[in-house]
Design goal:
Blueprint lengths: L1 H15 L3 E8 L9 E8 L1 H6 L2 H9 L5 E7 L3 E8 L5 E7 L8 E4 L6 E5 L36
Parallel strand pairs: 1-7
Antiparallel strand pairs: 1-4, 2-3, 2-5, 5-6
């Protein structure tokens, strides 16, 4: 009986522990003008994330703080896959440090964090339709159905 109770406790604790996230990053050959670049994964507060500047995030590659969960060099013309541990609380920021960013260079993954994320990069930004919206209110909504037109009287 003791073994079954201990086994059940291990299973339950494991289920409550940090989960894993599969991150796949597709970098076509022209990404970052054909040069390698850094990716930085951090645990963030969404308010902090909204106010960060590129230079502030880029400085964490050389001097990581406790929020940095992973850094990696991405190579153009590749698909690279990473296994990340989800933070116990907070959100994840995935930042792509392009030489000359032109548009969205990072994304926010808020709880509940998905177990798999696919990101596709372009020359100098994240392809916008390759990642889920960071904020539910930014999710595309279906267009409102059009009201049927009233029938026109004959001869009108």
């Amino acid at each position: 009986m003791y073994r079954l109770t201990a086994l059940a406790a291990v299973v339950l604790l494991g289920a409550c522990g940090p989960s894993r996230i599969s991150l796949s990053v597709k970098s076509p050959p022209g990404t970052n003008l054909g040069r390698p670049m850094y990716m930085l994964v951090r645990q963030v507060d969404p308010k902090q994330y909204a106010n960060e500047e590129y230079s502030e995030v880029a400085s964490k590659v050389g001097s990581p703080d406790k929020s940095v969960l992973q850094t990696a060099v991405l190579y153009p013309g590749t698909i690279q896959r990473f296994q990340l541990r989800a933070p116990e609380e907070g959100s994840l920021a995935v930042s792509f440090l392009f030489t000359a960013p032109d548009g969205n260079w990072q994304l926010l993954l808020s709880p509940p964090i998905p177990t798999a994320v696919d990101v596709e990069l372009t020359v100098s930004r994240i392809m916008s339709d390759s990642v889920p919206p960071a904020i539910p209110s930014e999710m595309p909504s279906a267009p409102a159905p059009k009201a049927p037109e009233a029938p026109k009287p004959p001869g009108a």
